[in-house]
UniProtKB/TrEMBL annotation:
InterPro entries: DUF5996. The lineage of its organism: Bacteria, Bacillati, Actinomycetota, Actinomycetes, Kitasatosporales. It comes from Streptomyces rubellomurinus (strain ATCC 31215). This is Ava_C0101 and related proteins.
């Protein structure tokens, strides 16, 4: 398959907006039924050979162990129990309301009961305390199997590039995982320094940015940037960060509130002679800029070829 196949936001916006809300329904179930991890790592999805998965959850909340998977090959939502039972239903033809209802009914039929304190979207156009609950959203009901499958294929390719990039760092790192609040796949590196957040900072942000970090990822586009793009940012942002050059030449710094986002447009990466190498170079240039400005010990944290022992020339078999 073509490396980084085209996925223009305008062509699948309806499917993306519906699918985004589907993932938020399941993501909030994951939040309710999993052990909390630092920086909210417990809530993210992981890629599979057919779609994305919550990974096993339950037990700590009194439920049996179960997983929920989006299958973007057969286009079904699949609930699997640790005892071998499975149930599924089609993603095609669902509104957010019907998807929400059928997901909870499927779980209940398998003996899983999860209460969602806020059963509405998080930080989407209809989120917030006065936003429209999932159960009342009949508007978002577009699901094109071709674009849903394409989005998973793109995430799979980007995920492998991020895995390759992640292997170069020996410090604290996040997994390569998919966050459902903004539908972006990301990998984050940490320096270990604690960050004193302002008292008025919301709880989600406080935990996400409690340590100094440089994050790298990809998202499909949104109202602010209406096209897919690779990105990186440093938080807290050191002074003069946006003065540093980025690679390749088409990459740029974009103002985002009081900070900056390093951006490489997906379509620009696709036109490079070696798109994979171009994305790796972009992430590396953004990391070097942020790490240098923030005073990280780049040499000590390096992990060439995914190996930390300097005596090893190759990983053990």
């Amino acid at each position: 398959m073509e490396m980084f196949p085209p996925i223009p936001l305008a062509e699948w916006r309806g499917t993306k907006e519906t699918l985004h809300r589907f993932t938020q329904v399941v993501g909030k179930i994951r939040l309710a039924a999993s052990v909390r991890r630092n920086h909210w790592w417990n809530v993210a999805f992981h890629l599979t050979g057919r779609g994305i998965t919550t990974r096993p959850m339950g037990q700590v909340d009194g439920n049996p162990v179960f997983t929920i998977d989006f299958d973007f090959v057969d286009h079904r939502l699949v609930v699997a129990m640790a005892d071998g039972r499975t149930e599924s239903f089609p993603l095609l033809g669902q509104s957010v309301a019907s998807f929400y209802r059928q997901t909870l009914e499927t779980l209940a039929g398998l003996g899983v009961r999860v209460e969602l304190p806020l059963p509405r979207p998080y930080r989407l156009a209809d989120s917030g305390d006065s936003g429209r609950p999932f159960a009342e959203d009949f508007e978002h009901a577009t699901y094109d199997p071709v674009w849903a499958n394409r989005s998973w294929q793109v995430l799979g390719q980007v995920g492998l590039v991020l895995e390759e990039f992640a292997a170069r760092f020996s410090g604290k790192v996040s997994p390569v995982h998919l966050f459902w609040h903004s539908l972006d796949i990301a990998h984050t590196r940490f320096s270990g320094r604690a960050v004193d957040q302002p008292a008025q900072t919301d709880p989600v942000t406080r935990e996400a940015y409690s340590r100094e970090l440089i994050s790298f990822g990809f998202w499909f586009g949104d109202a602010n940037l209406g096209e897919p793009a690779f990105y990186s940012y440093t938080a807290p942002e050191p002074a003069h960060l946006a003065e540093d050059p980025l690679t390749p030449a088409s990459a740029r710094w974009v103002e985002l509130g009081n900070s900056h986002l390093a951006v490489l447009r997906y379509d620009a990466a696709r036109t490079e002679a070696d798109p994979r190498a171009a994305v790796l170079a972009f992430y590396e240039s953004a990391y070097r800029a942020g790490a240098a400005r923030a005073g990280w010990d780049v040499g000590r944290l390096a992990c060439p070829g995914g190996i930390t022992d300097p005596r090893l020339s190759a990983p053990p078999l």
